[in-house]
Amino acid sequence: MIPSLMPAVSEHLQRGKENAVNFAQSHLIDFLLWLLIVELTIETDETAQTQLNTYLANGPTEPIVFSAVPHTGHPDSLYVYKAIEQLSPATLNNLQFVSAKDTWQSRFSRLIARAVAGEPYLFDRQNLTVGSMRTQLEEMGQLLRPEEGTPRSLAIYPQGTRTLGAPVEDLPVSLARHNNVPLAVLNISGAEQVMPKVPEGQQASQVIQLLIRRLRLRRAEIKNHTHHVHIKLADFIPPELSRKEMKERFFASHDRTENKKSS
Fold it and tell me: Which domain holds residue 215?
């Protein structure tokens, strides 16, 4: 009897360990939002949430590609994490962010990012040849649909940069369709001034300045300095659609006309 119980006990302990990690991450992110003086609200399209719930009924570890626009600062991953925590909490155990490889040159950036969102998939945006693009798509596909082990869900910023007004690329569409994985579209609003993009060497001082600002503010002044950030699950696009249909819904659901592309 005892040997037969060992796998179940091991699985229970592992699940407890994962939940403990997520519990710590969640509270760290809450603290960072407090530090940044951000009031975050999360909304969902009713149809999209129903489709998401139906999909996850097949298994809480089923992979999803999350696409978030616009990408205006490093705190965007905090909003995406909290949104997924509310919309599909079991997904957090197997969530991996896709991050630009060149932004990980700074030790400070690596330290903060790993603490908040774990180890990302590092996308080499400075070497986008046809061959390297194919290789990276295949590597991300292996995360979504591994030959062995638990599939990962991926969170992607399809603009590929924190530059305001950058065009939305259709990488999430290709990734989702090629791997038969649904695409969840997240829209972020009100985040542009939370932590604007600065050169990599200035990020540590930017955080210190934010901390000092927070500590100097009186309780009565907080309200006037609060950033109201909103994130919404706008659409949940099934992979069985044609590529044209997926692209149309993908660009339309971001609801940002300046970023839309023709399909």
Answer: 2-259
Rounded to 5°, the CA angle 162-165-167 comes to: 90
Tell me the whole-structure pTM to 2 decimals: 0.83
Tell me, what CATH number does 16's domain have?
A: 3.40.1130
Number of domains present in the structure of the chain: 1
pLDDT tens, residue order, the chain (263 aa): 444 444 443 444 444 444 545 777 888 889 889 888 899 999 999 999 999 999 999 888 899 999 999 998 888 999 999 999 999 998 998 999 998 887 776 676 667 677 776 788 888 887 777 888 889 999 999 999 998 888 999 999 999 887 788 889 999 999 999 999 999 999 999 988 887 776 766 666 777 787 788 777 777 778 778 889 999 999 999 999 999 999 999 999 986 534 444 33
49 Cβ neighbours under 8 A, 6+ residues apart = 87, 233, 236
Alpha-carbon span 139 to 233, nearest angstrom: 26
